[in-house]
Structures are given as C-alpha cells and as structure tokens.
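Same chain as my last thread, 126 residues:
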Amino acid sequence: MDYWVLVDTARIRQPADTRQEYALRETIEERHRQLKCFSDLEAFTSRAFNVIANQVVFVLLTYGLLQGYLLRIRRKALTAKTPPRTLELLRPTLTVMVIYYQNYMAFLTPLQHQELVLTLSESARK
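reply #2:
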C-alpha cells in the first residue's frame, strides 16, 4: 500500500477536494508541454519584445480558440491531443467527387477524376 502526503497552505474544507485538484496537475503539465513543444513557443526568431509578445499572444489565442471549438463540437477527447494530431483527426478522411449527368451519377476519387479528365476527347472535356 502506498501512502502519500499533500501539504497546502490554503484552508481545507474537504480533504478529498484537495486530492482531486492535485489530480489536475498531470493534465496541466501535459497542456503546458503541448504549448511549449508544438505551438512554436520555444524558439523565437526575433529579439524584438513586440514581436515576441505578439507571437505568444496569438499562439495562446489560437490554442484557446481551438480548445473552445473542440468542446463546442463535442470532441472533448481531442483537447488532450497535440495540435498536429488534432488537425489530422479533424480532416476528412475520404474525398469523393460526384458527377451527375442525365440521371446518372459517378462517385470518383480525385485520382480517378483526374484520369478521366485527361483521357477524354477535347469535345467531351468541354
């Protein structure tokens, strides 16, 4: 059995609440790591304070807006992912082109569509 102690200077009404708050530490540290490593907040290309301040503000604003958007579209599981992985999971996974002509439909991938267009005669292409 493991025993551990958490010391706090704040007045504690419910000891269980303090332990639950401490459990947030892991999530907070992971979000900090994501911001530092994946959001271009670790290397600055300029030494000008205004440029650095703008970069930090816009990165944090973008991060906050993306988190809000993910919560709004009910994709809370993506809020813990890195930004590149989140964007990868949000992209459509299937692209289909639909061609409709005289009550006929064709569903083509972009590659099939390109092949079709390139092999058509000039009059048919028009």
